Amino acid sequence: MHTEPLVSVLLPVYNAASYVQEAIESILRQTYRNFELIVVDDGSTDESGRVIQTITDPRIRVVHQPNRGLSAALNRAIEMAQGVYLARQDADDLSLPQRLDRQVDFLEAHPAVGMVGTWAEVRTDTPKSDNVYAPPTDNHLLKFELLFDNPFIHSSVMIRKHVLVCVGVYTQEASVRAEDYDLWSRIVREFDVSNLSEMLNVYRDAPNSKLKRERDAILENVINISMMNLSWVTKRDRNDPVINDLSALSHGAYHRVQGYATSDDLRALLFQAADRVSGGEAAPAELLRETIQARWCTILHHYDVYNRYYKGGRLRRKIAQFSEMVKRTIPLL
User: Do 84 and 37 belong to one domain?
Assistant: First the structure.
């Protein structure tokens, strides 16, 4: 008798012939067995399609489409998914054997959690490294971090399918480069989130990764999403200059700073946002203390640098230019 899988693994592929076989095999080796693997070949121009076709397993479903981008490929896989849980897998990353088992057990035991990620080993060109990415695991810490940045490894997350019914799928707006951060930001407004404190993913820090190719555009997008998050949690206008500067300074993006907010303004907004995220609960607020202080130290450092060398520097240059102009136009008496 045919039964639908509990987990659907979503694996979009674009020109990943060197890695995709290993990625697929890492899923097929999972100790958890009740899953389907949906592979979307997003118009690859290398040998990815051929490599995919050489792997035969009844749990694999493959679809080929013209190149439409990562979000479109993921949304196609989500439409096809039969599972209650949706697990992400990148074509150049690996899932360790107990990943799906651990995440299914966690979500079954924590019904309020809508999404769970994991810690990861970060590899470059070496077969194994001691570089570990270990983001926070606590719901409140993650909600605070998501106000500014993305504390999840995209290829490690598992999401309840009904969560996407509530908040929507990946945006396909061309201007949005941080499609994962955008989606997590919508999820966290309605559901709790978590990371497992186990290394269950291998993240490849490839030299030609999207993050490195589009670093500047992604940074601009991350700041814009951060501003929307701060606006949502504090109920202040998205274009509030304090929100703008808090987001920009958090990332050292001096070119985005307007320069109207004082350090007191920034600190007040930061702590207001943290209080709203914690819901005023004493225990989460205690857990947040070190994280908030670390974030504030980063913002204050960039605030000082901006005022000393950017804002002040521009002012000094303008004064010097004006002085030179006056000297040239007003004859000496």
Answer: yes
